[in-house]
Q: What sequence folds into this?
């Protein structure tokens, strides 16, 4: 009689409320099958995701949850509430400031993993906006812990596969993938108060790293270092944590996505005219997020003038000179000229082209007496000037060309996703009576303080002789001019090239970089490949298999 082959009966791994694995199988009549459990490693490499600006859930500090004002990005509806008429400049000034808000850990979490919601919240998933990151975090957790499908999963598919990276396009080997399956990648998230300085956010990330390592050690598991994955401004937070706060040795490596490495000129545009919406018509989620922070200079300045985090996204001196342009006829004036955007643009007061228009800073200034009103405005400006020179500039200096030595990055750059490389104000040509006389546009006087969108009407004195002494002209801000991801231009996205092990250029929008876009598959493949490559350094630690 022929011998029958034994059938393997797979018993999938499950996780309890603390995230510990277990296996459960029902008793059944005897047969020739054998139950097979793929063991989950007890050597842990946490993967901590750090979101971008506006990507963390916030709540009103010290107020009962039911009545607290929230910045919650659970869905398009919760984001859209911030575009409502009652969320005006005064409301935003009162609540969207660093002192008024704190991280809200009770946001929506995905149901598409084998982990219970309690464990996901313990890992910080409720701190980040589900709208932008919920689906991606679930996908990353499932992909990095696919022990039951290890022979057919994404890591196996990437063996020998090139991704057309600009630099470091080295495919995964079978041994590298094999080593990665000997460790468990527990996916975490770290939200932060994005209104506050990225220095404070970096300290929060530092605590999250330390707490995560301590947790697994307390559970008698082997855990020594983490891997960081970032989106947008989260990359600056992670770089500061690693390189300025001394956490490099606790981090195996970092994967950056669409990081504004040397800033983004779009921040200037948003100060002057509100958030530009470069999202495709079909990306409803992105459109809601784009409009949530502010639709004009009144709403944006009320928030940004006292929010160091977003201010630290402004172009750094490394961005270069001449990115702010004023075109008057055949003459174009460019700033900065001396490599000092802080003194030449950001802290310049009273000019129509200045980054911050002082009369828009504080809509809560209700003083009717002109002297008292000016006194409040002067105090607000002094605080803003301090922010520029004591929080924005030093932060930029600390990060200058500083990256974790085991860094991988991808950035968006495509003509279909234009971003502001330069911001140009173009005059309407003025009167023919002017002739060829040049206008003193840098010192022109703003004529309409109610203008808060793309146009400024100014009166500029004319140089040279003639009976016409001044001229009125309308200046309109340009459209995005440089290939990018809709927010970060090519020049800033590619800036880490000399400091990373691999750099991938893709066609992606900024906000949906991890969940949508023409190159979403390459983005996710690159992210997983980078994590596996970074994980090879585990052999330099006590977690190496002898």
A:
């Amino acid at each position: 009689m022929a011998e029958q082959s034994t059938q393997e009966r797979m018993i999938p791994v499950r996780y309890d409320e603390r995230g510990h694995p277990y296996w459960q199988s029902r008793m059944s009549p005897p047969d020739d099958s054998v139950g097979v459990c793929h063991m989950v490693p007890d050597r842990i490499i946490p993967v901590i995701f750090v979101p971008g600006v506006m990507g963390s859930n916030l709540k009103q500090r010290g107020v009962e949850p039911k009545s607290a004002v929230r910045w919650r990005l659970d869905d398009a509806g919760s984001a859209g509430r911030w575009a409502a008429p009652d969320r005006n400049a005064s409301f935003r000034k009162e609540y969207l400031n660093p002192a008024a808000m704190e991280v809200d850990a009770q946001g929506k979490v995905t149901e598409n993993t084998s982990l219970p919601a309690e464990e996901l919240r313990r890992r910080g998933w409720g701190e980040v906006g589900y709208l932008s990151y919920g689906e991606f975090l679930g996908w990353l957790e499932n992909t990095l812990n696919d022990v039951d499908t290890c022979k057919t999963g994404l890591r196996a598919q990437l063996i020998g596969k090139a991704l057309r990276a600009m630099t470091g396009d080295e495919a995964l080997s079978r041994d590298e993938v094999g080593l990665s399956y000997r460790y468990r990648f527990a996916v975490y998230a770290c939200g932060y108060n994005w209104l506050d300085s990225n220095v404070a956010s970096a300290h929060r990330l530092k605590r999250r790293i330390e707490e995560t390592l301590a947790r697994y050690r307390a559970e008698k598991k082997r855990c020594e270092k983490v891997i960081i994955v970032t989106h947008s401004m989260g990359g600056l937070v992670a770089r500061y944590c690693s390189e300025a706060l001394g956490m490099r040795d606790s981090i195996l490596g970092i994967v950056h996505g669409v990081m504004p490495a040397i800033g983004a000129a779009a921040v200037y545009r948003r100060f002057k005219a509100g958030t530009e919406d470069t999202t495709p018509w079909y990306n409803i989620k992105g459109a809601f997020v784009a409009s949530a922070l502010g639709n004009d200079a009144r709403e944006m300045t009320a928030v940004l003038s006292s929010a160091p985090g977003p201010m630290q996204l402004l172009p750094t001196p490394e961005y270069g000179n001449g990115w702010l342009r004023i075109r008057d006829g055949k003459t174009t004036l460019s700033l900065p000229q001396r490599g000092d955007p802080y003194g030449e643009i950001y802290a310049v007061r009273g000019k129509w082209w200045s980054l911050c228009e002082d009369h828009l800073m504080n809509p809560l200034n209700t003083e009717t007496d002109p002297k008292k009103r000016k006194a409040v405005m002067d105090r607000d400006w002094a605080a803003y000037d301090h922010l520029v020179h004591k929080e924005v500039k030093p932060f930029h200096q600390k990060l200058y060309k500083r990256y974790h030595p085991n860094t991988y990055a991808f950035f968006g750059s495509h003509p279909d996703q234009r971003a502001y490389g330069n911001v140009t104000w173009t005059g309407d040509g003025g009167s023919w009576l002017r002739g060829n006389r040049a206008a003193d546009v840098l010192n022109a006087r703003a004529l309409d303080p109610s203008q808060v969108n793309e146009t400024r009407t100014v009166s500029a004195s004319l140089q040279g002789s003639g009976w016409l002494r001044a001229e009125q002209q309308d200046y309109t801000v340009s459209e995005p001019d440089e290939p990018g991801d809709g927010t970060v231009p090519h020049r800033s996205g590619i800036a880490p090239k000399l400091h990373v092990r691999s750099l991938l250029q893709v066609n992606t929008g900024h906000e949906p970089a991890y969940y949508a876009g023409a190159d979403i598959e390459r983005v996710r493949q690159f992210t997983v490949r980078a994590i596996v490559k970074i994980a090879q350094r585990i052999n330099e630690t006590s977690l190496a298999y002898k």
Summary: The mean pLDDT is 92. The longest helix spans residues 370-399.
